[in-house]
Predict the 3D structure of the following.
Amino acid sequence: MKACVCNEHWNQWVPMIERRIIGAAVRIILDQGLMITVWDGEEVALSASVNPDDILGVIGDTDITIFNVQKVDGYMHGFIVFIHGNNEDVLSDHSIGIVLENIVDKIAKEVQST
């Protein structure tokens, strides 16, 4: 995944540790064949995407990002909440359920190992 994306605010306003965690989340979710809808705290910034550059490109304009994680058929597994400015605690909340809990566990393991 690229460090620099089309949204200048990603690099300007989102700290490196948050970029690592959110970048890992995007990759892990997409690697499982799932899609991400991004809500930026004000509106749906991107609907049902599998393009990592598009997803990362809409992050950084507000202080919150919520990923709605869904299957291609539209089945919603749940959500992950990122609150920007919390650095290593950027991943602030997530839905309860085996799919989301496994994703969050994988993110934590990957970030800890780097």
About this structure: The chain has one domain: 8-107. The first strand starts at residue 35 and ends at 39. The mean pLDDT is 91. The two ends are 15 Å apart (CA to CA).
